[in-house]
């Protein structure tokens, strides 16, 4: 099993980056905070992600559960007020941890990938999401353990 710090070890992570929306011409900056809990007695990891986007008063909040960890993959459940609950599949190796949501009845799909930058002890992230109404979001940023 790979020894990632993100998701697999309890911690608080802070991040920042840029969000591009196909409905808006300009890129928006964002701040994020992840609160990752330790595995429970049945192996589930609960995490909360909060995202604050510049110019938008209300923060977005995602509740995630990571579980069924195998040698190279896992399952992830994400829930938020806008899309409800979706279940996806994750993969990992020594360089990255990633997950995707595909083919669900909500017509919401996308992926997130977190590449470990060992030199700077942080994760560089990229994600893309699309909804049934063709609302597309692309996110690029980084996260680091809160000091």
Secondary-structure map:
Blueprint: E1 11-21, E2 28-36, E3 45-53, E4 60-67, E5 73-80, E6 84-92, E7 96-101, E8 109-117, E9 122-130, E10 136-145
Antiparallel strand pairs: 1-2, 1-10, 2-3, 3-4, 4-5, 5-6, 6-7, 7-8, 8-9, 9-10
CATH class equals: Mainly Beta
- Estimate the mean pLDDT confidence: 90
Structural class: mainly beta
Count of discrete structural domains: 1
Which sequence of strands runs across the widest sheet? Answer: 1-2-3-4-5-6-7-8-9-10
Q: Which bin fits the share of residues in helices?
A: under 10%
CATH superfamily: Calycin beta-barrel core domain
Span of the ends, CA to CA = 26 Å
Number of strands: 10
Could you state the order of secondary-structure elements as H and E? EEEEEEEEEE
Tertiary shape:
globular
CATH topology: Lipocalin
Model description:
The chain has a single domain, classed as Calycin beta-barrel core domain (Lipocalin, Beta Barrel), CATH 2.40.128. It is 0% helix and 60% strand. The mean pLDDT is 90. It is built from no helices and 10 strands. The protein is an all-beta fold. It has a 10-stranded antiparallel β-barrel.
How would you sum up this structure in a few lines?
With 147 residues, the chain is mainly β. It has strands at residues 11-21, 28-36, 45-53, 60-67, 73-80, 84-92, 96-101, 109-117, 122-130, 136-145. It has one domain: Calycin beta-barrel core domain (Lipocalin, Beta Barrel), CATH 2.40.128.
Provide keyphrases for this structure.
single chain; about 150 residues; mainly beta; Lipocalin; ten-stranded antiparallel barrel; about 0% helix; about 60% strand; globular
């Amino acid at each position: 099993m790979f020894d990632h710090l993100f998701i697999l070890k309890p911690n608080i992570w802070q991040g920042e980056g840029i969000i591009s929306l196909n409905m808006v011409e300009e890129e928006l900056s964002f701040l994020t905070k992840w609160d990752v809990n330790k595995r429970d007695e049945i192996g589930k990891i609960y995490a909360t992600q909060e995202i604050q986007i510049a110019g938008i008063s209300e923060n977005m909040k995602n509740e995630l559960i990571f579980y069924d960890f195998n040698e190279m993959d896992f399952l992830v459940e994400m829930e938020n007020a806008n899309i409800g609950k979706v279940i996806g599949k994750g993969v990992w190796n020594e360089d990255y941890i990633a997950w995707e949501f595909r083919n669900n009845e909500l017509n919401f799909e996308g992926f997130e990938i977190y590449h470990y930058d060992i030199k700077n002890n942080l994760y560089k992230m990229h994600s893309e999401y699309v909804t049934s109404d063709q609302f597309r979001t692309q996110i690029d940023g980084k996260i680091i353990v809160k000091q």
